[in-house]
Every structure is written in structure tokens, then in C-alpha cells.
């Protein structure tokens, strides 16, 4: 939580400057538990909500940097983690409130996206509290099979927040689920001088059912793409050279991670990997 303290004074100073800005960069720290069975599984990541010209993207810091590298022609970016459960990447059209959740298969780099159509029905409460010198009001909502408590500030616009959470009378400063598996907290907000979101390009639109099938197929054979394309999979041999990957061992390792670290944010879309 040191990151939060570091930026609290900055937030307080610029709140009233940026409330009318259209192009913003908003950073959230996500603390989450990718595994429900391992008490030591808690992790933290920095995420960015970039807003430009009525469009926004929510993604982690590594993905944001990777998108920028790809945009400027630097190859394939920074790669993707083997555990597809750990991907939170959301595009939003602020005019139509259209939300698209993206997933990338790590080896083939195939991009898929699905519409997020679950309505957010917020319940507001008169209760208030101060978070990092910002007066916030309480709200609750159900999403993804989880119950969420949010604290938002009417003094900070726009009416946005991390991931899918928007539609309140101000910016979400903090939001967490009732299981304490996910906690998003505002750490930084500033005007953006960028003219481009450097967003992920292309992709195939799929239904949630099709997305589930893609994830199940990936679990069954993470290296199916390399096999059908006769691509050799190599890794660092520890001495500056390359060696062939043992596909069986790597497959078992990926499958184990997918089963163990499967506490996904959309609990109602959780896959029982077998």
C-alpha cells in the first residue's frame, strides 16, 4: 500500500484541476488473490484507465507498454503470460457504454473479444468516508457473481472506474468484493497529452460460450498452434543459448497453473478445468 500513500498528496492537489478534462490517465492498484486455496497467493498489479475522446482502455502496466511498442512497430511487444486467467483488458465506448473484454492466446497471439452486457445496478448509501484526503460516498453493486462495495467521489469526474465499474456520480476511488479477493484502489490521476490509446488491434468477436470453449481448448493443449504450424518451441538454456522445450512438462505446468490460479474476477464465468 506504499504506492497509494506515495500518490495521495498528488491526487489531492490536482482533483479540482482535472475534473473537466476529457483526456485522462487514471492509475489503480489491484490487490488480488489468484488462488483461493493458497493463502500466500496475494499479488498486486498497477493498472491504467486511459481515456481519450470518449474511448477508454483498462489494462495493466506491462500490457500498456507492450501496446505502445507494437504501435510504434517494435515487433510483438512484451509477450503474454501462459495463464490466460490473469488477463484483464477492457475497451469501452463512453458514448454508447459498449464494453469489450479481450483475451489473447499466448503462443498464437490470436485475439478474441466478448461484449460485457451485464448491467450494473448501483445502490447508493448516504455513508461517507475520507480516503487519501478525498471525501467518498458508499455504493454497492453485483457483477460477475460477486457483491462489490465501492467508494466514489462526486468531486472527481468522469463517472468511471476500474475495469467494468462505471456509472456512478463520480470517479470510483476504491472498490472491493465481499470475499476480499479483489481490491482496486486509485493511486494516480492526471491529464493525458496522448492522442492515441495504442489499443490492441483486430480480433474476432465471440460469445461467452465460445470464449469458454477457447479457454478449455487452450487448457487441453496449450501448444496446439505450434504443433499445427510445425513451429519449434525454444527456451533459454541458461548459458546464452537455446534449447527445445519439453512440451509435455510445459503442458502439465500450464494446466496446473490454470487449475490452481483460477479465482477469476467473473466468478460466474469460472471454468472447471478438467
Walk me through what this model shows.
The protein has 274 residues and is α+β, with helices and mostly antiparallel strands. The protein has two domains: 2-191, outer membrane lipoprotein receptor (LolB), chain A (Clam), CATH 2.50.20; 207-269, no CATH class. It is built from five helices and 14 strands. It has a twelve-stranded mixed sheet with strand order 7-8-9-10-11-1-2-3-4-5-6-12. A two-stranded antiparallel sheet has the order 13-14.
Brief synopsis:
The protein is 22% helix and 34% strand. The protein is an alpha+beta fold. It comes from Chryseobacterium gallinarum.
Shape: globular
What percent of residues are in strands?
Answer: 25-35%
Helices and strands, in order, run as: HEEEHEEEEEEEEEHHEEH
Radius of gyration: 20 Å
Structural class: alpha+beta
Which CATH architecture of the largest domain?
Clam
Please report the distance between the alpha carbons of the first and last residues: 37 Å
CATH topology of the largest domain: outer membrane lipoprotein receptor (LolB), chain A
Uncertain residue ranges: 1-7
User: Into which percent range does the helicity of residues fall?
Assistant: 10-25%
Broad CATH class of the largest domain? Mainly Beta
Total number of domains: 2
Query: In which order are the strands of the major sheet placed?
Result: 7-8-9-10-11-1-2-3-4-5-6-12
Largest sheet: 12 strands, mixed
Number of helices: 5
Kindly state the mean pLDDT as a whole number? 88
- By DSSP, the count of extended strands is 14
Amino acid at each position: 500500500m506504499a504506492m497509494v500513500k506515495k500518490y495521495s498528496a498528488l491526487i489531492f492537489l490536482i482533483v479540482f484541476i482535472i475534473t473537466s478534462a476529457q483526456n485522462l490517465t487514471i492509475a489503480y492498484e489491484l490487490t488480488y488473490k489468484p488462488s483461493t486455496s493458497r493463502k500466500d497467493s496475494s499479488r498486486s498489479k498497477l493498472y491504467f484507465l486511459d481515456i481519450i475522446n470518449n474511448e477508454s482502455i483498462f489494462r495493466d502496466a506491462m500490457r500498456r507498454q507492450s501496446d505502445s511498442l507494437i504501435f510504434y512497430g517494435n515487433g510483438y511487444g512484451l509477450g503474454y503470460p501462459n495463464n490466460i486467467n490473469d488477463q484483464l483488458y477492457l475497451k469501452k465506448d463512453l458514448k454508447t457504454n459498449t464494453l469489450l473484454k479481450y483475451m489473447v492466446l499466448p503462443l498464437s497471439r490470436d485475439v478474441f473479444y466478448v461484449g460485457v452486457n451485464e448491467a450494473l445496478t448501483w445502490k447508493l448509501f448516504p455513508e461517507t468516508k475520507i480516503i487519501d484526503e478525498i471525501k467518498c460516498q458508499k455504493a454497492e453493486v453485483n457483477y460477475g457473481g460477486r457483491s462489490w462495495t465501492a467508494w466514489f467521489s462526486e468531486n472527481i469526474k468522469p463517472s468511471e472506474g476500474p475495469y467494468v465499474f462505471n456509472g456512478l456520480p463520480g470517479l470510483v476511488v476504491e472498490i472491493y468484493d465481499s470475499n476480499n479477493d479483489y481490491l482496486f484502489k486509485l493511486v494516480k490521476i492526471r491529464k493525458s497529452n496522448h492522442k492515441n490509446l495504442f489499443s490492441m488491434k483486430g480480433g474476432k468477436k465471440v460469445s461467452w460460450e465460445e470464449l469458454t470453449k477457447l479457454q478449455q481448448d487452450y487448457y487441453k493443449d496449450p501448444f496446439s498452434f505450434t504443433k499445427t504450424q510445425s513451429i519449434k518451441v525454444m527456451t533459454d538454456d541458461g548459458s546464452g543459448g537455446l534449447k527445445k522445450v519439453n512440451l509435455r512438462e510445459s503442458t502439465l505446468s500450464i494446466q496446473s497453473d490454470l487449475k490452481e490460479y483460477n479465482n477469476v474476477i467473473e466468478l460466474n464465468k469460472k471454468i472447471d478445468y478438467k
